[in-house]
Amino acid sequence: MSSPVRNILVVAHARRDDTVAAAARVIALLTGAGARAVLSPDDRQDLEGAIPLDGVGTLGIDIPLDDIELAIVLGGDGTILRAAELVRGGTAPVLGINMGHVGFLAESERDDMDDAVRRVIERAYRVEERLALSVRVKDSADAVIYETWALNEATVEKASRERMLEVVIEVDGRPLSSFGCDGVVVATPTGSTAYNFSAGGPIIWPSVEAMAVVPLSAHALFARPLVVGPEAPIAIEVLERTSGTGILWADGRRSHELPPGARVVVRRSTTPVRLARLHPPAFTDRLVRKFRLPVAGWRGPAGPVSP
Question: 46 catalytic, yes or no?
Fold first, then answer.
């Protein structure tokens, strides 16, 4: 009896010529190995007519999410975040092949694409679970009016450039401080190298389970970045005295307006994001490579590093 066909989701930044060509190559490699390439409806529409799509499945139409084994992503970190959104609710891990600039979440570069597909076919990868955020917005009557999630960060920002947000931050059910600001970032270790890093927050190693809380341009003496345990919910209240409105962004992809009195509660999600990894988990090396950090003159340890 023949084994079931393996369904591999291909997620591509389909508005770039090099990525379209890479999608054609990956689909051909998967098909040649006996697997079935699958596209989201949007990606299929973008790629229709640009590359051959015979035998390619469509996610949610003829191939359900639960039948997806893995997602291969061709693009930068934004495309990887989109892929994580597509497979949310399933068990498929995400494998990023960097076609952009930094590509911090990517596991391989474009020159290693063929080898990455080969290792997917051979199942020669490990799966790493990353902490994700559960995000709820409550109104002034404490009713939940919006729910979402984030892999990198949830950000409360001012909606109008000329106006400031007045917020109070709460950690683990207790008020911490109130101030005027441009916003507040709550980031995961995965997102600590993204908006959090640009805003002056700390880089958190992926093995550390924590959340970073970073005020943006706060008018306060005590408004330094915080690192909070993952079981402590973070709440950001937009105070009634705020002139104007705020806006919540999740991974820069999903948003919701925040009127005065709104309360954003961020906590660890019960569902992590699964990333497929091909290489040893040397996060220090990834930092050096992606940020081009100077390490000239490093002598190295005298002997093996103790476990």
Answer: no
